[in-house]
Amino acid sequence: MEFLIQLDTWMLLGINSAHHPALDEIFSWITGRFTWIPLYAVMLYLLIRKERSNSWIPLLCVIGMITISDQIASSLFKPLLMRPRPCHLDELKPLLHLVNNYCGGAYGFYSSHASNTFALFVFWGARSGKPLATLLCLYALANSYSRIYLGVHYPSDVLTGILAGFICARLFIFIEAKIKARVSLTLKY
Fold first, then answer.
1. Do 28 and 100 contact (CB within 8 A), yes or no?
2. What are the phi and psi torsion angles at 102 (to 5°)?
3. 164: alpha, beta or left, given left = phi > 0 and alpha = psi -120 to 50?
4. What is the pLDDT along the chain (189 residues), one digit of tens a residue?
5. Which CATH number do you get for residue 180?
6. Which domain range does residue 99 map to?
7. How many domains does the chain have?
8. CA distance linking residue 69 with residue 85, whole number of Å
């Protein structure tokens, strides 16, 4: 276990130490709360155009999926496990390059950013064409990587978030199929 903790810290410091002012701005922008609103708007437009009158089903599933994905990480795992973010540890803080002194909340296991973005990628990627699926994959990877680059998450926080997002998306793909089948059955009668 000690080896894994050291490996996690070593990987974090390796990624975080490869900083550059331009990359600082790019990754700070990538992880921003409002950066991706245009992408979400395009996704919503494509959803409504494709699904038409049933667009409320996947939209409801996305809202539920992101809420569940985020709250499991933020309200369950982080307070339960109380693993400090690396940028809050006195022994690591001097070794980390923090962009704009940003550190985030006290606890970091596991990454909500990684979980939420990968949930979106898996859910939407399964239904969209290759260009949008590729863009969503790049978005999820860049957003997840930015959390390590910025020094606010260990790689294991991000990898666990990716796995949690994948599981949450698969669950909501299943739920969506069940709802659509029920609605289709109801409309027949």
1. yes
2. -80, 130
3. alpha
4. 788 889 999 999 999 999 899 999 999 999 988 888 888 888 888 888 888 888 899 999 999 999 999 999 999 999 999 999 999 999 999 999 999 989 989 999 999 999 999 999 999 887 777 888 888 899 999 999 999 999 999 999 999 999 999 999 999 999 999 998 888 766 555
5. 1.20.144
6. 2-188
7. 1
8. 19
